[in-house]
Amino acid sequence: MDLYQRLEKGTYIIAEMSANHAGSLNRAKQIIRAAKDAGADCIKIQTYTPDTLTIDCDNQYFQIGDGTWKGENLYQLYKKAYTPWEWHEELKAEADSLGIDFFSTPYDKTSVDFLEQIGIDFYKIASFELVDIPLLKYVASKGKPIIISTGMASLGEIEDAVRAVRSKDEVQLVLLQCASAYPAVTDEMNLKTMVNMKETFQVPVGLSDHSMGSVGAVAAVALGASVIEKHFCLDRTIENPDASFSMNPDEFKQMVLDIRQAEKAIGAVQYGTSRQEETNIVFRRSIFCVKDIKKGERLTEENIRVIRPGYGMAPKYYPEMLGQTALKDIKYGTPLDFSMIGMP
């Protein structure tokens, strides 16, 4: 897959399934269909098991003390949230049949190897894994496009990650601005950082957005985002670890429409009259005769003025016209042109 070619066609919009399948393969397939209908370009899942992410330990280091998952044990949380690996091929086949891209976030070498076996075309690196340089180098060794979220990362950490990816063969890379909070608040989105990353690393950029609503996503597109990622669910009432900060199909569809409209509004560099302005250009100002003028009479401030509409000479010629002589009779209300006047 050539990811960069896809980005040239417009903002690439990713629907992140994550844990929203709530343990149901049928629901996971429904999510893929709903994402396609809502206008997503891609459906993304996550490839891990509790054991590839952490260990089954109950001491204080493995307890979540605050936020959406407060009181959870890491191992038990990931047990609820993970997507069974035996589903992956079936989910990919569903996406392929619908014509929507399908890819995943790996969390260790075993998940990368597994995704290679089922033919994944590109990879996403989660913000929390950005500092796992050995993993990044291993993913990059597969030679496929990589999208990296940069939540929590310092500039130096992003530099390390980019260097790790570029240490292998030429790999297409996209960096996503991200606030790793669930849900995130728009006030702390800092989209200017995304713009700076584009300038600093000379790669396409985008937004992995955990906030509610689509303001951040549309604003990011206006600032140059090539990729938007949003968590996607069928219904937030379906209990799972990601439901509270995911978009339902109607919300996602509206976001897609807003993004596509924003792309049209951004448009291209164009000066001059646009198609929609053509009928209104006549309401510009121009030079008109405002009193009857006889042949041989001089033009003065009393008999010519700059007024609407725009059928006469451009206003910039007004000072030059004053004092010149009418070469013929000019009636009141006639737009002035060069053929009507000459030097006295």
What does this 3D model show about the protein?
- With 344 residues, the protein is α/β, with parallel strands linked by helices.
- It folds into 2 domains: 260 residues, Alpha-Beta Barrel (TIM Barrel); 68 residues, Antifreeze-like/N-acetylneuraminic acid synthase C-terminal domain (Type Iii Antifreeze Protein Isoform Hplc 12, Alpha-Beta Complex), CATH 3.90.1210.
- 33% of the residues lie in helices and 15% in strands.
- It is built from 12 helices and 12 strands.
- The strands form 3 sheets. The protein has an 8-stranded parallel sheet with strand order 3-2-1-8-7-6-5-4.
- The longest helix has 18 residues.
- The protein is elongated and about 100 Å long.
- The protein starts with a helix and ends with a strand.
- 37% of the residues are buried.
CATH architecture of the largest domain: Alpha-Beta Barrel
CATH fold-level assignment of the largest domain: TIM Barrel
Class of the largest domain, according to the CATH hierarchy? Alpha Beta
Give the CA-based shape. Answer: elongated
Rg measurement, Å: 30 Å
Tell me, rounded to a whole number, the average pLDDT. Answer: 94
How do the strands and helices of this protein lay out in sequence?
Elements: H1 3-8, E1 12-16, H2 25-37, E2 42-47, H3 50-53, H4 74-81, H5 88-98, E3 101-106, H6 109-118, E4 123-125, H7 133-140, E5 146-149, H8 155-166, E6 173-178, H9 191-201, E7 205-209, H10 215-222, E8 227-231, H11 249-266, E9 286-289, E10 304-307, H12 318-321, E11 325-326, E12 341-342
Parallel strand pairs: 1-2, 1-8, 2-3, 4-5, 5-6, 6-7, 7-8
Antiparallel strand pairs: 9-10, 11-12
